[in-house]
Every structure is written in structure tokens, then in C-alpha cells.
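note to self: the first set is below, dont mix up w the second
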Amino acid sequence: MALASALCLLLVGVVVGAGLVLVAVPVAGFVWYAVDVLAFVLPVPVATVLAVAAVALSLFAVELALRSLRTARENADSVRSDPIAEGVVELGAYVLLLSSLLVALAVLPFAAGVLPAPVFAALVVFGAFYLLTISYVWAARVWVRSRSDDADRLERSAAGDQLLVAVLAVGYMSLAYSELFAVVLVVALVAIGLGAILAPGALDVARNRLVAYVEDGDEDVDPEKAYHGIAEEARQIAAGLERAPGPRPTLLVALVGAALLLGSYAATTIWPFEALAVAVGAVAASAFVGGHFVGAIRGEFGGNAAVLRNLELEGDLDRDSVAETTVDDRELADIRTTVARLAGQADVPVPDLRLVDRRTPTALAVGYRPATSTIVLSRGIVNSLEGREFEAVLAHELAHVANRDAAVLTALSAPGSVARTATGRYGFNPVLEPLAMLTNAVSRAAVAFVARGREYAADDAAVAITGDPAGLASALETLDTDLERRPESDLRERDVTAAFSIVPPPWEEQRFFDRTRRLVARGLFGTHPATERRIDRLRIRT
């Protein structure tokens, strides 16, 4: 387990390091280029201050756009994403893509001087093949997902599409004719950042005009859904700052901004602007990437575990009720009472109870500490089991909490879950994507390795809680049989959550290399020992 944890942490460090480089390169390049151009009409210190201010406002606009899109996706039933935010995020994704290419071009001369000519040629060919292949795979993946039931989560508004076309057109003009065309994008980002700080109402007006121009009369637009965008996120941040204790937060933010600009002005008188550009890129990347990394860690240990976030996206996770189920308020209260009673017998705090609208029987425990753990039950398992079988399953999940298995598995699965979330949130990048895929694979393997050894211990602890090994054996047999009868279209289990469930999902036969793929899935990434073996162990004890 220690080796798996160390490997996961190493991969997380590599991903974060790559993200720092990809963000720092365009920021440093912009500051360098902007100062070099503005120095013809302005003093270098003044040009540096303007460049640093533009970078800060642009990153602020990108951060607000990411926040607004995340909020819109989490509340897709009631709000629509802001087309301005969609355009900003797409612009950021293409800047990262350009940054990865710039890094590759910068490395090529060094590699050419160090590597033998045949090796260097093979490396160039491999790089070109890799870019073409992974781009095709990513496009195919997006197309497949767009054909799935989650297509409504992936659709972009017509106004957002128009903005994306505009971004691509300006980018092409910048590369093909003159870099000065890129000033249009920079000015737009700076204007969005200033508007969010000084006049968020102006952003509302611009968004409404854009939507009215592009989507007027569109039958696909839901009139009952409100837009949630950059302006709303800016207002929420401002309101939060006003509620914060201590000196007036807005004044503190203004003082920090003034100190940043004055520091840039003073630094220019000491260092060459080239060195200052590199320093600004490093600081900006550390603040932006570091903020997201710290936010992910805070969310993990604050109860918003990535595993639960994935369940929310995949299975309509709900805290209090299950839509369109046979679970009524009285039955839900009985489940809570049973969980509380069994938690007392297991000597653990009563965990939170979450229900997921999924017909496939699922029960799992997630959380880093017993006091903040969560038991997730699906509609299928509530309807499939009753009495002693249902109590045995709850005792099994509480045993995972008591034995700290849930904490270990949650921690080991976090890198893979965060990598999957980041891929969808920040867009495709040929550098970060394979690293994210590798992190996800290692995380899955680590979870599988640890989970296989803890199921027997959880079974034994559940028997100690209930004193009924036959009840747990019967529950395992019922669930295994029920899963085998499920149609393939109803098997919604995901690899990231399968390790937490009480029984693994059944194997779906593959058209090609079925035996090999089953060996890998059940061997290397298998999260549970054979259910029949677990049932035999329990029946021996009856």
C-alpha cells in the first residue's frame, strides 16, 4: 500500500508540474512580447505594469469562467451555462494546446544535439504519430459521449459556438498574418476581468445581447432556465468577501493588487524584463494551478470527495430522496434508523446517507474519517434486499468505515477521480491527457490491490456486528444473481466506484480478446475476491 500511495503521489506531482509549465509558458511569453512591443511608445516599467495587469485580469476571467461552467454543469436541470464563459474556457484550452506545442519545439533543438540522429528522427516521427492518434481518439471519444444519454450535459449553446468560431478565426489570423491580431483576444479577456470586478451588470447585458442575436427563436432554448455565468460568480465572490471578518476585504484585495503592480514596476528597475517575464510566468502558474490543486485537496478532506462527485455526475446522486423510486419517506426513515443502530453496534459515528437513482444494486462507503463518512445506496439494492440481508449489507459498509478501509480506498482513488474530472473540466491537452490516463490507471490498480484484501475483513466485521453470517451470505448471493440478470444497458457501474461496492459488477462479454481483457480486468484491476468464495467462507461459520 505504501508503494501504491507513493506512486500515485509521484504521478500527481508530474501532472501538477506539467500543468505549471503549460500555464507558465504562455504567461511568460505574453509578458515578454507585450513589454517588447509597448517599449516603443512607453517606458519599460510602465509597459511591464500593463502586461502584468493584463495577465492578472485574464487569469481572473478564466477562473471565473471555470467556476461558472462547473456550477452550470452541477445544476444542469435549472441553469444554462454562460456563452461568454464557454468562449473563455475554450480559449484557455487552446492556449494550453499551443503551449504544449511551444514546449515541444523548444525541446527539439536540445534533443537534436544530444540524441543520435536515428533516435532523434524516430522521436520526431513518434511525436507526430502520437499527436495524430491521440487527437483522433479524443475526437472519437467526444463523439461517442455525445451520442450517449449524457449528451445534454455536453451540448454547447449556439452563442458559445459562435464565440468559439471567433476565437479560432482570430487565432488563425494571429498565426498566419500578424501576432497583433491576438491583441483582440487579450483585450476581450481584460475587458471581461474588469467587467467582473467593476461592472458585472455590463457582462449581463453583453451576454443577453449575444444570446438574443444568435439564439432568438431557437426552439431548443429552455426559457425556464436562467443563465449562470461570470457575472454571477463575481457577485458571489464579492458577497463572500463582504461577509468575511476582519478589515474590509475589498480594500485588502485592492491593496494586494496595487502592491503587485508596484512590485512589478520596481522589479523592472532591477532585473531585465526578460527575467521578469519568466518570474511572472512562474508566479502566475503557481497561483493558478496551485489554487486548483489546493482546492481539490480541500474538497477531498472537506467531505466533497471526488468519488462522490463522479457519482453525482453518473448516477443522479441525491442526499435526501430518490426521484421516481418506490422508497417513500417512512422507508427512508427506517433505513436511517437501521444505520444509526448498526453504527452504535460497530462503535462508529453515524455516517451520512446518500441515495442514488440507479436500478443496479449498489452499496458503498466513502470518506476519509468515520465522522465524515458517507454510505451510498442505490434504488436497486433498497428494492432487492430486505430484513436481515439488508442489515448485513449495511453492517458490511459500516465495517469498511470502522476498519478505515473507506478512508484508504478514497485516498487511493482520489488521484484517478480528480484526473477524470480535470480532463472534462479543462479540455483536451496532448501532454496532460496521457499523464491523466496513466494516473487513473495506476490509481485503479492501487485501489484494486488494496480492496481485494479488505473484503474478507469487512465480511468478518459485519458478522461480528450482526452475529448473522448466513444473512450476509444470502445477501451476497442475491446481489450476485440479480446483477447477472441485469441487461447490459442497465449495468451503469463505473470503474472508479466499483471497488467501493459490496460486490463487483458482472463481466460484460467483449467481442474481441474477451479472455485477455477479462484476465486484466479481473486480475490486475479486479477489486473483489470471487463472490462464491466469500459466500463459502460465511456459510462455514453458520
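second set (the one i keep forgetting abt)
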Amino acid sequence: MVRRDDGTGTPTPASGTLVYSGNELRAVDTTVTPWTRYRYAVWAEDGAGGYLQPAVTTTTTSVQPVAGLSATGTSATTAALTWTAPTDPGVAAVVVTRIGPLGALHTVYSGTGTTATDSGLLPGYVYSYTAVAQDASGRSGSAGRAVALVTSRTWTTTAASPYAGWPGAMACASSTWCMAVDNTGSYQVMSGTTWSKAVAAFGMSPDPEWEPVISSLTCPAAGRCSAIRSGRVVEFSNGGWRSAGSPSSGWTSLDCPSTTSCIAIRRDGWSTTRVGTTWTAPVRIGTLRGVDWNDVACQAAGRCFAIATGSTTYSSWRGTLAGTAWSTGFLTGYQTGSLTSISCSSSSCLALGERVRVMVSGSTWSVRSLEPSTYIGSTSQVSCATPTLCVALNFDSVERWSGGSVVERSRLSANIGQVRSVSCPRTGGACFAVDDRGRFYRWTPTTHWVLLGTYDQTTGGVGRIGCRTADSCFFVDRNGWLVGWNGATWTRSGKYFTQPATVECSGTGFCIAVDSINKVYRVWSGGAWGASKPMPLAAADLSCASPTLCLAVDEQGRVTRFTGSGWSTPVAALTSQWNDAPRVSCPTGGPCMLLSSNGSYRQYSGSALTATKQLPSTFPALGSLLSCGSPTMCIAVVDSGDWAQWNGSTWTIHPQDFTAYRLGTLACVSAEQCLATYGYSNDDVPVTWTLGGWAAGLPSYPPDGHGRPECVSLETCFMAGTTTVSRSS
């Protein structure tokens, strides 16, 4: 027996409204009044007119609960909600609410439908949704089961700027025949005065900008070359590359004084020679142990010389091959310097390295220490035609040596790339050089160094991205080519710079690209890029608050402002004892924040710099990243994971967060969220700062380098890779 009453007094089997009597296990009471509290008592009858102790419960009637609520993330910032419409005629509306970051309650929907879309969410955060029914007077029924979701970014990767070209090795057999192999695996031949088209021959280098596909390229005659590829000897003849059939592997240096004679050595002290087409079994370079053999060169077949350095010291050692036997000996200690490269003409050799010069005349070795006042840096490659004509690479300089002395030092690719290889053939009285941009140079006694032209159109690599909208972005590749995004594909257009450039956009109608090395810039407006114009400083960092307020800073701590028509005269802003550039970040509308590595900071509001202030000493500002999401929110974070937050008037220091440890980039999308990447590891998950908390987000993006994120909105961000760009949605 089930009876209902108003909840006063003690329930009895004879009092209250009879709801049910029978043998079923459930009943529906259809005679209640809405929004009323009732007490129900349930008795079990013993069959003889008696009743057991009742079970009692109370409830308050309302409208029918909403059933079937579900929430599905449709993007990084939106969710789709569905539910079942209540059949209760007293229901006038369904109200859906969510609880988000920091417990904030937000009404998502109110109406009579069964679906809703929630937008404006923060990626990587948990949101909880609840649906309740209301009657016509606005009274809410009981809440149904809450559902939750975690918003996440979906990363789509596009091949944006594949590498092509990037010369890495070159050797000339005469003044009219050279072989060049680029780091994307293609070779080209100069025959006469023109270069052939690129022909694919090898796989691409893992790092085409720096790591050569082949090493120790040597060409004893036109149409005949040998080189080392992945530790094995390969040869070029009859118009193609093939294996030379050398024994074993791991060879690191090679020289061929003629088409029928070659020698190859390994760093661990083994050598093999080729006579005709036959290679000898590997033999030790004498009895010397505990050294690393760096290079080998020959005056003629059976008369070769090798150089080595101590495995644990900078001491230098020699090896001499006479016929088939090696002899070894000590050259100089670490105080004098260490040797890295050797090259021989038919009667002499020149070996160079760090602070030391060694000559071989016939078979006699002579050592001379090079004073810093006359010799700068360390030689990486040397090539000799005669005892009085050798060319060497010394960092950014190309040196000409004669009789053991430097007689000429030139910057062939000053500010525009770097020379990658030099070659002086034993015939012809000329030397050649090629840089990483595919430019070809020749030296003769009458003209000295002359640029002959660009034979290899070198492209590829992704620079810093700037976006006007989600469907219009730009970057400048590693060789100065402009690449644009149209919402579906990346397309390379013109060569707007000679070097990489930084692109920064503000609003939908303005972008600026800055080449810091050559101190030039271009502006995008009115649908096109303008002419190249000079800048007053070499920009180490750049940020724009508007098309008329961009700040650029240099390594001297100076700042200049772009006003919409040009750059202002640089003024001193922030300096540090490390002589590095301050960080600069300009949120939309400004003001801009500048932060030095010693913790000093200033703002620029559009007319002048504020007074210099200092972050609290508890914040280790050295090497900090900086980004501002709004005029009243900036984040600074250092390598250790310590971070600070700006609220518009003061900086607040926060304890170390290991998730923010060793970040490489930081970009604040808004006042609520920032996006960062790990710069010193292979981690491929974006790191987010959301309303005061750091988290490693999922899913991951393809780990192809870690450029600074460029976010058009909370939902759409672009992540620059080495040759690809990942886009979030």
C-alpha cells in the first residue's frame, strides 16, 4: 500500500491519499500538484490485516528533468550540445549552462529546441554542462546528469617550403670544369662557362642548410670525381654517380691525385688505397693510437699526408704514406693549435686549423703558430693548386695563401649567405668558391674574386609567420623567397629578400617583413608588398600593436618605431651586461612592453618610453620569453620554468612550473591564454598557459622544428616547422 500526505504527523495505513494497492513494484502518481512537497509511505500487508513498518520518502514535484544531454567538441573553441525534449506540458523552456575555468557559470542556451552550439571556449580546458527544464514562470526543475568535455586543437600539417638546392660540396678539375653537389641530393656540372640542370642522385641531408650530402669531393679530371657518402666511397664517371666498391665503411676523408689513384682514411686510424679499380684491404695508419685522423691529401700516387688531433687534447700529429707504408709523428702541442684540413699541390701541402699552420715541402713538415692579430678563427677547408696558390675557408672569410702566409682575405658572401666550398684545380691558374645560396665565384690573378652568377636557385625552410586572417599568411624562407597561405595551400612567389626575414602583421590590411642582417624592410598594404626600404637598425626582435605602431629593437638595446610611413631615429631603451637585445611585445592597440635580460622593463605607449623599472629580484629574468595578450596581461617565462605576470601596473612573480621548463617560444593569444613550444627537445605537444595555469596540450603537432606560434584567434594558430606548417582548428 502506498499513501501520500502533506508530511505532517505520523503516516498511518488509514490516513492520506491512497496512491496504490497491489502486488507491483512501481506506481505513478498522476494526481499531484506542481511545485508541492509530498511525503510517501509504503506498507507491506501481512495478509491478516496487519502492516509492517513503512518505508518513507519525501519529494517536491517540478517539471520533467531533461534527459539525454551530450556535449561534443567540434573545434578548439566550440562544442555541439544535444538533448531530448521533455514531454511534460508544463515545460516552457530548457536552459543549458556550463561551468568553465575558475568555476565561472555561463548560460549557453534557453529555449524550446534540442540542440545548441557553445563558442568562445578556451582550448585545452575542461567544461561541464547541465540542462534543466523551466516552467512558464521561470521555475527550474531538477538538473539532469552533468556531462563534461575537454576542448582540444586539431593540428593539420601542410608541406609549406621544401628545400631545394643548398650547395654543400664543390670541386673543380680545371678552370672550365667543376662538379657541385647540393644538400638536397642533386648535382650540377659546369662545363665551359655554364652549369647543367640539377640532377637528383642522392637522398636529402637531414639538415640541408648545414649538413652536406657528401664530403671530401675530389675531381682529378673533367668527368671523373670521387666522394664520401654515408661513410662509403662513391664515384662519378660516364655521366652518373655509383659505388666505387671501397672495402668496409666509415670513411671520413678522401683524396684522388689522379683518375687511377685514391686514398681514403677513417677517423679511427684505418686507410685504404685504390690503384686502377682495385682497393687494398684496410691497414692502420702506423702504430699511433689515441688520435682522431681529420684529413688526408696527396701530392701524387703513393705520396700522401694525413693530419690528426689528440682524442683528449688539441695536440696535432702527422702521417706520411710513402709507397705502401705509413709513418707517423708528433707535430705540435695544444698550446700551438690543432689541425683540421690539409691540401696538396704536386710538390707541397698546406695544413690549417685553429691557430696553427703546417707546410709540407716534398716530405718535410714545418709548423708555425699563428698569432691572433694576423689569424682569426678556425679553418674548415683548404684547397691548393700550387705552393703559392691555396684558398681556405675561415668562418665567413675566404683566405688566399701563398708560401705559407695569408696574402688576401675576402668576405664573398658578406651578410648574404656563407661560402660552403672552395677549390683550386692544379691546372688553369684559377680558384673557385660556391656559397649556400648557389652563387659561384672565381679568382684569377688579374680579377681576384668575381661573382659569376647564381647557378642553383636555392629555396626552402620556414621563417617566422605573420597572418592577416586565417586565410592569409606570409613567411620568408631561409633564402629570402616569399611564401603565402591562401587558406588551402602555401605558394612561393618572388624572391623579396636575400636572407631570411621576420614577418609581423597587425589587423587585416597590414604586414611588415624585416631583414635584420641587411637592415631592410617591406610593407604589405593594399593587396601587395611594397618596395624594399632601408631600416635604421638591425632588428633582433619586432612586434606590432597597429599599422602605425611597430617596435623593433637591436642587440645594443636601442628601439625604433614604425609610424606607418617610416622608422623613427633609434633611441636607447634597455641594455644589460650581456649586450643582448631586449624582448618586445605589442598587444593590439598597445602599449608595447620591453623586457631586458637583467629584469628591467619599460613600456611604449605610442609617443614615448616610460621610466625604466625593475622586476622583483626573485625573478631570474635572464633569457626570458615575453608575450602580451592584452594591454593588461603579459607573461614572462624563463628557462627554469619560473614565470611572471603583468596586470597593467605591476609584475607578479610565480613559482617555478615544470611544464614551462625550457620553453623555446611563447605567444599569448588573448588575456586568458598563451601558446608555447618546447625548444630544446623533441617534445611535440604545445604548452598552454590558461588563466594562471600551465599545461601540456594534446593532441600533438608533427615535430618538424619549433617556430613561434602565430595565432589569428583562439581556435586558429599556425606552428612553423622546418619545412612544414601545422594549423590548428
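remember for set 2: The chain has a mean pLDDT of 92.
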